[in-house]
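Q: Fold this one first, please.
A: Sequence and structure below.
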Amino acid sequence: MALQVRVAPSKVVLQKLLICVVLFYTVYYVVLSMGCVMLQEYELDVLAPFDFKTNPSWLNTNYKVLLVSMEVTYFVCGLLFVLVVEEWVWDYAFSVTVLHVAITSTVMLEFPLTSHWWAALGSGLISMICGGQTLAYCLFKDNFIYPELDDF
């Protein structure tokens, strides 16, 4: 018996991707504003989610707010994406991250080449996928698609 996978129509996929992107940036700005209040950083930049040029230093409060907000946003969005895309969290997490890099490059007019930004982005993506897929498995384990490997 061959593996049968139902492919969603492109309109549904794009709608879910748009919902995930809006959810991502909404959570990002909420977490960013909460981080500014908690760490007493009173200058919230509107372009903060796209800032990869801030000098990485633990003495720099602005850097700590940006770093913590990125990591918390990725983890929380991984859990929230489950409600939108069910078991396809990994796919949408990767797509939203690619869009975030593209938007960041467009907003800042330069491709991010700083290693600390990519390390934060990569660890955030891993936490988003691991947390989201784990929650999706727990919530939808009866609906998960398991490939039949008997024919190999």
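Q: Good. Now the second chain.
A: Here it is, same layout.
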Amino acid sequence: MDAMPSSSLVILLLAAVLAVSCPSYEAATSKGSFEDNFSIMWSEDHFTTSKDGQIWYLSLDNDTGCAFQTKQRYRFGWFSMKLKLVGGDSAGVMTAYYMCPENGAGPERDELDFEFLGNRTGEPYLIQTNVYKNGTGGREMRHMLWFDPTEDFHPYSILWNNHQIVFFVDRVPMRVFKNIGKPNNFFSNEKPMYLFSNIWNVDDWATRGGLEKTN
């Protein structure tokens, strides 16, 4: 297989985490450097940063992608990242921005997911949202964007409280997931979660069900 050129995801750290875990649910902006708030999970050499430390570049090549997570877990709040996604031919590339109580796909995990599915040059990105509770997902929903997410930074946000989970793009609500107020197996509201982001090759399913492979 020919060497795959590096693909890059760009994250504006200034808006990397807006989170709170207090009863008022008022968002508090995270301060400090990347190292103060996050830990690199793997492939530290696939991270670079701007001179001021506020913009982080995550890269994917033929060998590996990379990932990071918050050092703290949160239960409820407003969580937001500004992302500039991989440009050009990004088929098979997935950028994930999600919340989970654990580092790994445990059988009883909860998740709140933003997944950005790459495509061939000139074809639009798709955003996929999903919600897991106690290991049960299957609630994928795909969304079309009204802009090119590779040209500039855009905020992607999750509002999570005991009443609802709302996924936002540019502060526009894209999906609302309501708590019906009764014991259920679909609304996550019990487990504090870390925030994660990664970039990786999933060309077995990400683009046209796996028909389009990573170049």
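Q: Anything worth noting on the second one?
A: The longest strand covers residues 77-84.
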